[in-house]
Amino acid sequence: MTVDHEVLAGLRGRDLLGLADLSAAEIGALLRLAHHYKRTGERNNLLDRREIGMLFNVSSTRTRVSFQVAARHLGAHAEHYRAEDLRLAVAETLEDTGKVLSRYLDALILRHYDMTRYGEGHAALTMLAERSPVPVINALDDHEHPCQVLADLMTVQELHGPDPTAPRVVFTWAYSSRAKTPGVPHSWLLAAGALGMNLTVAHPPEFPLDAEYVKRSAALAQDSGGRIEYVDDMREAVRDADVVYVQSWKCLSREGADEAARREAHRDWRVSTEVMDLAAPHAVYMDCLPSNRGEEVDAEVKDGPRSIIFDQAENRLHAQKAILAALLAPAGSALSGDPDGGLLR
Prior knowledge:
The chain is of the alpha/beta class and about 350 residues long. It has 13 helices and 9 strands.
């Protein structure tokens, strides 16, 4: 895969708040750069002396560590700040904090949400990006998780090749005792719509996704030739699938009914060996972690030969490197050692 430096040049200095910020060509270019970094193991000083701040109000393992290591691989320094260690803990606003940090840093990576107030996290990130002179990257809010889904797409490509229309992907809700953000499925909807993918989303009637994302992804799919459908039966959805992707998300349609609705759905919405056996013989199991054995998925599936969750987790590093390189590389510098590539203009 040749790295498309010309397309990537257009990302320099931009924010990444959601996958709708990217065209299909830009998604493809980022994925090719991520594959290049993984294939070659390349480390460079592309982002030498760049300072990156990571402000998370929710804990993180994969996103935090992969961004810190990705920055180091590119010669930058990424430091993590806990909200409780800043003056945010005593009511300084996120807007004021962001304005101050942007005077010190070359980019801000934010994870910001509170699932008791759906939508406020994304609104806060959008506000901060509008007021920040440096790029803002969404490391998960209550609407989207673009960085995770870029790594997911990379993982699917490793199995099915670069044609996004090749695999049939099933994204299914599953029971979790913890209320989770719908950021991953929303970003999957936008990716599938933009890239023309064949995506089936399965969820109980009580757990529809945000109507705005359903509408936006349908419009994208109409233009791209993609197919996105919704069913309320996990087993029906999984039949003959190439990829089975599991994620729980909070009930958005009935405020206050989330815990009761999740308990009611517990029995029928878990990926077991029986469920995976309905998929194609070569089908793989994916989830973005963390997931609980016996809740979203049985241990036999999560730890079994069809599970590629740790390949998926590893690819967070390579996708993050591609994101940082494209958004933060100085003008006139090569994004990689790809001999067929040009310079970032």
